[in-house]
Specification:
This protein is α+β, with helices and mostly antiparallel strands. Helix content is 29%, strand content 26%.
């Protein structure tokens, strides 16, 4: 089994992405968790810890639950992890603040027979088979952008988009599914800062992205993203919210 990951901050701020994998001693499976922390729109968030602390706590809790409790579905694992993380700072932070730390989530768990997945918000999961790459997307945010500006007030609303914050119930909004293990050769995850090579710059499609990850590795893939960003520093050719964003790419060959 091959597992590689690369993660780089988009600038001088601390990296708000999280990525980790776990393999059981038995060698019968594994789990992968990737989070992309939401940069708060204001300096004050109600949380004394900050987004990097939040994604590390939530990601670690989710990885532990997903890898140690195979009988619990990934959505329930996420729900429990959100509740556990909220409890860890409810006494010190104002979790009712609209800018309390949030994150996108991708989780994958594989065993001898199946590969389970969960995607919440705009990070991208690629499942590679002999037929090519299948992109598993939570496209609610993309569909909102097609209709006009996306407002912060749309976050975690019925007709808006969803990210993991303090409400365990948001886990039910995630895109989930299961594939036979025999059909999945490769698993890859890209936070939106890495997926912009496809979604913003159009440098390749999802098949090309997966091929690049397999042939060159995640570190080289992130380097390609940085080169594309550097070629358009003013964001005139390729409009985007941030000139350079935190970028994480993970590859697992099963």
């Amino acid at each position: 089994m091959r597992i590689e990951l690369a993660s780089e901050p988009g600038g001088p701020r601390p990296n708000e992405d999280f990525a980790a994998a776990a393999l059981p001693v038995s060698g019968q499976g594994g789990a992968l968790v990737v989070l992309d922390g939401v940069t708060p729109p204001a300096a004050r968030t109600g949380c004394v810890h900050g987004v990097p602390w939040y994604v590390t706590r939530l990601g670690s809790a989710l990885l532990e639950l997903a890898s140690e409790h195979s009988g619990i579905g990934l959505a329930e694992c996420l729900s429990l992890a959100i509740g556990r993380t909220a409890n860890a700072h409810s006494d010190s932070c104002d979790l009712s603040h609209s800018a309390t730390p949030q994150a996108t989530v991708v989780a994958v768990r594989w065993g001898e027979e199946s590969v389970e997945h969960l995607v919440l918000s705009d990070s991208v999961l690629l499942l590679g088979s002999d037929d090519g790459a299948e992109a598993v997307l939570d496209d609610r945010l993309a569909r909102l952008r097609e209709r006009g500006p996306v407002l912060e007030s749309m976050r975690n609303t019925e007709d808006g988009f969803h990210t993991a914050g303090v409400d365990p119930g948001v886990a039910s909004r995630a895109v989930t599914g299961t594939r036979p293990r025999s059909r999945v050769r490769t698993v890859a995850v890209l936070t939106d800062g890495a997926a912009r090579l496809v979604e913003v710059f159009g440098a390749c499609d999802w098949d090309g992205a997966l091929a690049a990850l397999r042939e060159e590795g995640p570190e080289a893939f992130v380097a390609r993203v940085r080169a594309a960003e550097a070629a358009d520093p003013e964001r005139t050719r390729f409009p985007r919210g941030k000139a350079s964003d935190d970028a994480t790419a993970v590859l697992v060959e099963l």
